[in-house]
Amino acid sequence: MKKFTYPKEVLDKMKDIVDDCMGDAPAYCEATCPMHTDVKGYVNLICEGKHEEAIRRIREKLFLPGSLGRICAHPCEENCKRGELFRQPMSIAALKRFVADKYDNESNWDLSKNPDKSKKVAIIGAGPAGAQAALDLRKKGYNVTIFEKLQVVGGMMRVGIPEYRLPRNIIDFEYSFLTKLGVEIKLGIEIGKDISFEELRNKFDAVIIAVGAHKGVVIPVQGHDLTGVSNAVDFLREVSLTRKFKIGKKIAVIGGGNVAIDVARSARRVGAEEVHLVCLEPKEQMPAHDWEIEEAEEEGVIIHDSFGPEQIIGKDGKVFGFEIKKCVSIIDKEGKFNPKFDMNMMKTLDVDNVIFAVGQEVDNSFIPQGMLETIRGGRFNADPTTLQTKLKNVCIAGDASGRSVIVIEAMAEGRKAAISVDRYLNNVDMMENREYEGAYKTWLETDINLDVEDLPRVKTQQLAPKDRIKSFVEVDLGLTEKQAIEEASRCLKCECKLCMKECLMLNDYCECPKELFANILKSGEVDPIIPYSCNMCNQCTIACPKDFVMADRFFDVRKLMINANGGKSPMKGHGAIEMHQTLGFSKFFNIAKPAKISAKTKATAKNE
Predict the structure, then answer these.
(1) Parallel/antiparallel/unpaired status of strands 461-462 and 476-478
(2) Among 80, 85, 103, 323, which residue carries the largest CB count within 10 Å?
C-alpha cells in the first residue's frame, strides 16, 4: 500500500507528543541506577519464574551480578515507589543475587564482540571501574590490557570489602568473563616501578587510570604514631588477603561509615574480644547503612555515638588507652565541617589498638610530577563529562576521579571513560549526547496508587550472630526461590503507557505513542492503515496524564489523505468502513466521500 507523505504543518502537531510522551520513560529504579539496569524487567521475569531470562537481562548491563547483589548500596531502592508508599522498598539487590547465584553460568554469557581493531588501550587498576572500562572497550574490538598492582583482581571491592559480605569465589568467577572475552590482565605489575607511566603511554594508544583509593587516613591526634595505631585500608587489605591481623583483645575504631563498620566486624573475626566504635554523629545520623549498624551491634560491637578522639594514650611506645570527648555539633552555621566538643564530658577506653576509618586517598606517586593535575585526596583533575585529562589520550575512572564512592558508580565511571576513549580514538565529538550517562532523574510521572496492598518486604536469611564471628563465612544467605518470587510480586511496575492499556490499535503498531510519532517525524510518511485504524474514541486521551489528543492528529491526516485522493478514502477494500462512516453521526467518521451503498448492504448492516 502506498505510503502518505505528511506536510510540515501536520508533522509539527505531532512534535509535542514526541517531546513530552512518557511512554518510553524509564522506571525510577532504572534511571537512578548508574548503570541503568532494567530492574523492572528482570524483577518481573523473576515473578514469572523466568529466572534464566532474568539473569540474561541483568547481564546486558552488569557483568558482576553476584557481587553487586551482595554489596551494592542500591541507590535504586531509595527511589522505589513502594518505599515512598510504605517505607519498605523492593529488595532489588537480593533479587539480583538470587538469580545470579542460582542461574548465572558461562553458557548464558554473551561473548560476542566487534572485529579486532589495531589500536590498544591500557587500563591501570583491576577494580570495578577498570574492569568495566576494559569490558566495554573489548566489546568494541580494542585490544585491552589491565595492569594491577595486587596479585588478585577486584581492587578495593576485593581488599576493602570483607569476605563475610562478598565471598572471593564470586569475584573470581565473574571476573573470568573478562579473560574469556579476550581482556589481558597482568597481576603484580606496579606502574612507576615495573613499567613507567611514560612507557605505558608510548606503547598504547590510550590509557585509563582506574586506581582505587588504597591509602588510608589517620587523624594526627596525640599518640597517632604509637605502635598499635593503624588505618582501615591497611587493616582490611591484610585481613582480606590473609584473614589475619596482629591485634589485641580490645580495639577502638574511629568513624561512622560503612568502612568503619566493616573494620569493627572484621576485628571480631580476627580475635578482638571487645570492639568500640567511636563516631562524631548521633546514631540516627551515622553514614553507615542502618542494617550494617544493626548487624554490628548483634555481633557485640559497642557504639559510642556523638564522641570524637581527644588523644591516644601510650605506654612503652604502644597503645594503652583512648580518650574520647563528647561531640555537641558537627556542622557550623556556614554549613562547614567544624565539630564542637564538650570537654567536660570525656571517656577513656581501655584498648590495645586504634584503627582510623575516616577517609581514603589515591596513591598518585606513579605519575611524574606535573604531568597530570591532581586535586584533594591524591585524585586527578579531569573533565567531569568526559573524564579526559589534559593529556588527551588519558582518562580517569573510579576513585581516581574523585567522583565515585560505591561500586556501581565506579562501574558507571568506567563505562564513561571507555566511551570517551572510543570517541577520542575515532575523532568523534567528545561531548555530544552524554546527558544520560550515570544516574539521572527520569521524566516519568506516575500517581501513587493508595489502593495498593501494603506487602511487607521479604527478608533474607542470615547466620546467627554467635556463629558469624567465628569465621569469615558469608553472613547473608540470600532468598529462596519462593521468597524471591514473593518479593518480586511486590513490584509496582512503574511506567506510564496508560493509553496502551486502553487502545488495541496502538499495541498493533508501537510500544508507545512517542515511538510511533517519532518514526513518522523521522520519515515524514506512514502507511495509511495506521491513522485509519484509529476509531476516534478518545480513550487514549482520557487516560493520558499529558492530555494528548491523538485522535485529532489522525483526523487531520485522514482529511489530507481524502483531499489528496480526490475525495475518496485511500484505503482499498474499505467499503465496510465507508459504510460505517456514511451511517454514523459523528463528524469524526464523516471524512470520506460517501460510497454508493446498495439496499442489500443496508439491510445486512441493519440485521447485524
Answers:
(1) antiparallel
(2) 80
